[in-house]
Specification:
It is a single chain. With 270 residues, this protein is mainly beta. The chain contains no helices and 22 strands. The chain has 3 domains: 99 residues, Immunoglobulins (Immunoglobulin-like, Sandwich), CATH 2.60.40.10; 79 residues, Immunoglobulins (Immunoglobulin-like, Sandwich), CATH 2.60.40; 71 residues. It is elongated.
Length: 270
């Protein structure tokens, strides 16, 4: 019976650490007699890579050993060396030491938790906005403004953005780009702030027109709703009322009252 021999060369190659050996497995091919066994006698394959084993022996199918899996990520290159011994039933053996290299995958910062719209701002006082990018594990971030805007600064280490809009003369949207960098890799995000020199009028949510039909003597309470785009609190008051109008309105928009029993239908417009 001939001695066993290896067909696959010792150098298995270099791969990125996110390479999927599940999709593209490495096949270690050999020539050996039926009933031969295989075991790792020295070293180990890199963490995350797998070779099927049974009872301490590597599984050999059609003279092939298959390596699958995905390497455990590392910030440093990984070099794996391991020796496999093939032994035939006649005790003849063949050893081969394999090597494989796995290179780190560069990971840039991300802005996945940062909204693009920072908010509304007046021109009287500077405003501050805390930006938050997500760095790769174990890395530190620095921030910078890629598209300079007058009055706009950022702390390069904390990501605190400061905007002095005192030079703006009319309502406008200020757009700009901020870059987060870690380990020489960067990601950009487009941001914007709405600057209000003149306050914008609130917008009604309750539609115009009829708000209901009610019987005389019944207590009526209806919540009227409007919205301020800046999120400011609103106060409500009646701007004009017809004669005999039986309702009042609270500061929070609650229209309430108890109309008298009329002699006929009455429509109030206010």
């Amino acid at each position: 019976m001939d001695s066993p021999r290896w067909v696959t060369p010792p150098d298995l190659g270099s791969f990125s650490q996110d390479y999927s050996f599940d999709l593209n497995p490495i096949e270690l091919v050999l020539n050996a007699a039926p009933g031969s066994t295989a075991r790792i006698i020295n070293g180990a394959i890199p963490d995350g890579l797998l070779v099927e084993q049974r009872n301490g022996l590597l599984v050999v199918v059609d003279n092939t050993i298959v390596i699958t899996g995905v390497a455990v990520p590392s910030r440093s290159p990984i070099s794996g060396r391991f020796t496999i011994r093939i032994q035939q039933p006649d005790k003849k053996i063949a050893d081969r030491t394999f090597s494989i290299s796995l290179e780190p995958v560069p990971i840039p910062p991300t802005w996945e938790n940062q909204q693009s719209f920072l908010g509304y701002q007046g021109v009287d006082n500077p405003e501050h906005y805390q930006l938050r990018a997500t760095p790769p594990p174990g890395e530190y971030l620095t921030y910078s403004i890629s598209t300079p805007v007058s009055g706009l600064t950022i702390d390069p280490f904390s990501g605190l953005l400061t905007f002095d809009a005192s030079g703006i003369l009319s309502n406008t949207t200020v757009s700009f780009t901020v870059m987060a960098e870690a380990n020489q890799l960067s990601s950009n995000i487009d941001l914007y702030i709405d600057v209000l020199v003149s306050p914008l009028a609130p917008k009604w949510i309750t539609p115009a027109g009829s708000i209901g039909r009610f019987g005389g003597g019944d207590f009526v309470e209806i919540n009227l709703r409007a919205d301020d785009v800046t999120g400011a609190a609103l106060t409500y008051q009646l701007a004009s009322v017809p004669a005999g109008f039986p309702f009042n309105i609270s500061d929070t928009g609650s229209l309430y009252g108890r109309p008298e029993n009329p002699l006929g239908d009455i429509v109030y417009s206010f």
